[in-house]
Amino acid sequence: MNDSILIREGAIDSLLSHALRSAKAHGKEVIGWLMGFFQKEGVCVSESVPCTKYRFQSRFGAEADPTQEAEIASLYPRNVGIVGLYHSHPFAMRLEGGHFRRISSLDDIFHSSTDDSMLRARSSRRKNYLSIVTNGIDYSCYVMKKGSKEIEPALVGEIPYKNSLQSYHSNFSIHLEEEMENVELKDAIRKISWELMDRAKKDLKQEGLSIEKGTFNRHRFRSRQKSTEITPENMLSFDKGNDSIKGEAHISLSPVVYTALEDEKEINIAMKEEILDNIAYLLWKLSLSKTPAMRRRWSRVEIHLGNVEIDESESLPKKRFQTPEREITIKRS
Question: Which of 64, 74, 85, 138 would disulfide-bridge 51, Cβ 3.0–4.6 Å?
Fold first, then answer.
């Protein structure tokens, strides 16, 4: 048993159930992600998340839609999230009487050359990246050690991440103004979004951050009803002139990162990446919402971006998007 590889029993139960349910229903391979965090010499898995969007899916192979992996990764702060993959081998299941039943004599748990290639590529970016293969009843776990190596992880009831990770906190604000001539509103939104990301990257490259160790709270969101703290609103605004649009962007963030490391340089890098992640996430949420169709004359448009907060009440800290009370405010001419 490898005590540096810890997996919560509930995460194993969940992926076994996912694989067996699919094998019995349609005999197709399934994929999912192992969620947790890396430590100095090991990895902890707290959750397993099933894939629900596939590029293709058959009895002998499957490929997840990469957009779903990106969406799942975006729900977790830096240094927490995807630490491995799992997939099933349902081909030891035979259709009998309208249902798939397992052929017990067939060895269906192994790490193929394709699995090795995947694990090698992902392990090159992060040591101790995990791969689990299951038939829905049993499973095997692998890491890359000069080729894939089967290991026996330690199964535990709970993995309190607060005992292993330290939280670090910072604050970051940015204000940007841009005068744009002869553009439509949708183009102005796109332009100031690009400028905002570019400006944030430059500011973070040139300036240091004040980072403090934090204490864990059950919830980190600020309730609109209970909070007396006035926080600058994250917003894009546009004022229309005769032949131009003046755009402004206001962003104020309180990012949190989690790490088992104590290297100040690495913590600083993680914090800056987390800030850029959060800005990109807010702008991505904007791109998914409906931008106003300005068929009537207008003088000012405000697009409220909401905020990103951290919920520490579950088995892993997760980002929560706080929607604004009103997404778009339009002042007509």
Answer: 64
Residue type, 226: K
Give Cα separations from 329 to 94, 128, 191, 238, 292 (angstroms). 59, 48, 20, 11, 10
Give the pLDDT of residue 288: 64
Q: How far is Cα 302 from Cα 192, in angstroms, rounded to an integer? A: 13
Higher pLDDT, 70 or 1: 70
Sign of CA dihedral 124, 125, 129, 133: negative
Model confidence at 172, pLDDT cuts 50, 70, 90, reads very high
Q: Which two tokens stand for residue 30?
A: 């399934």
- Go through 32-71 and write b for each residue having 16 or more CB atoms within 10 A of its CB, e for each that does not: bbbbbbbbeebbbbbbbbbbeebeebeeeebebeeebbee
Token match 């309208």: residue? 98
Q: In whole angstroms, how large is the CA radius of gyration of the chain?
A: 24
Tell me which residue of 186, 189, 285 sits closest to 237, measured CA to CA. 189
Three-state DSSP class for residue 166: strand
* The one-letter amino acid at 92: A
Report how far residue 215's alpha carbon sits from residue 287's, in angstroms, rounded to the nearest whole number: 34
Q: Which domains does the chain have, with CATH numbers?
A: 2-158 (3.40.140.10), 166-332 (no CATH)
* Rounded mean pLDDT, 137-163: 90
